[in-house]
Amino acid sequence: MTGTAAPPRADVVLAERRGSVLVLTLNRPDRLNAWNDAVEQRYFELLDHAESDPDVRAVVVTGAGRGFCAGADLDDLQELAGSRDLTRLARRDPPRHRPLLFRKPLVAAINGAAAGLGLVEALYCDVRFSVPKAKFTAAFSRRGLVGEYGVAWLLPRLVGRSRALDILLSSRVILGEEALQLGLVDRVVAPEALLDAAVAYAGELADLCSPASMRTIKSQLLQSQDSTFAEAVRDADRLMLDAFSSPDFREGLDSHLEGRSPAFPGLALS
């Protein structure tokens, strides 16, 4: 995307508030929610809005119809195959991994196929709920492509090196139950309960957990991937001292002692 890109179509990603949780639905069901620039722009725009809204404390992303996201739109791939100028792929602003940098909880409700870029987008989420018959596939090696957009960094950290190699080299289809065993997803839920289960989980985070704590914890996990254990301990010691002097710590302690739900303030991140 560039600064001259056309405004995103609002209908390609739908937004619905459920209390403090924002549900975003990729909405190209006739194409199994295949990813294109319009979807990306609208999705990232909605994440930006959610991040700056203190009343939104968690986001759930799912797909309309039978799929979560079937990967990059084939029309776009055909256009790329015939293009000699591919520099725009490396000049995305914001970067394609923008969801990984989202500073509030991001939960995936994977209702169907998550392939190629769709798999990567699912992996950018913090926690993944899936239906038993959801189909996961990297797809890259069967299209003459490589592990895209940081998946070679993410996947081994989730499932281990050999399993990541299996998933990426073979591009085989993995169903929901095996995805759970491998560590690709965290919960497998019946289709009729999927979205409600994901929203309930996100709602629990929104209602019971400090937004400031969750922001910091997400940052800790991301930064610790490239640090030593000693560095992670030093960073945690510094952050813990800050936390002890924060109003959220006082509220967390008081609410626990008083046997009530905490009333943490929301975050408006810019």
Low-confidence stretches: none
The rounded Rg comes to: 19 Å
Element pattern in H and E: EEHEEHEEHEEHHEHEHHHH
The tally of domains stands at 2
Could you give the count of β-strands?
A: 10
Structural class by helix and strand composition: alpha/beta
Number of helical segments?
10
* Main pleated-sheet profile: 6 strands, mixed
Give the CATH level 1 class of the largest domain.
Alpha Beta
Tell me the overall shape: globular
How far apart lie the N and C ends?
21 Å
What does the average pLDDT come to? Answer: 91
| CATH structural fold name of the largest domain | 2-enoyl-CoA Hydratase, Chain A, domain 1
- CATH-defined architecture of the largest domain: Alpha-Beta Complex
Strand order of the largest sheet: 1-2-3-5-7-10
Strand content: 5-15%
- Kindly report the name of the CATH homologous superfamily of the largest domain: 2-enoyl-CoA Hydratase, Chain A, domain 1
Helix content: 40-55%
